[in-house]
Amino acid sequence: MYNKKGLSTVVTTLIIILLVLVAIGIIWVVVRNVITGSGEQIDINTKCVTTNLEINTARCTAATGACTLSVNKVGGYTLDGVKIIYSSSTASGTAIDQPGDIVVSMTYSPASGLTTPLTVPTNVRLAGYFNDATGVAISCPQVSEMNVTLV
Fold it and tell me: 121: part of which helix (H) or strand (E)?
């Protein structure tokens, strides 16, 4: 009689098939997570590209620092908010978060809760943002910018 001490061909083939199935499962989990995660970012980027903000007027009172900003929105998506940044020749203010969508044309002023951290701003930048599934604000790369008129 022969004394066989190795694996049979059938057992070896089954082990190889099992290892291939495990490898396919691992690769599928990684690919699925990449596809799912990037799908939301693509959706936000699409919204950003089709939503355009335009600053019509930007006026600040030199004595009080009170500013009024008139903004138009072109595009069909509902923004989750806008970030407004006033700057001067010497400093840049922090982003002022104004939650909520802009309905065609909107005016921001001290009466609506808008205050600038700078006493005499000379420039204003505006960017819309959308919240992702976790509620984190993702700012659109398109920024509308205008010099401030001092009155």
Answer: none
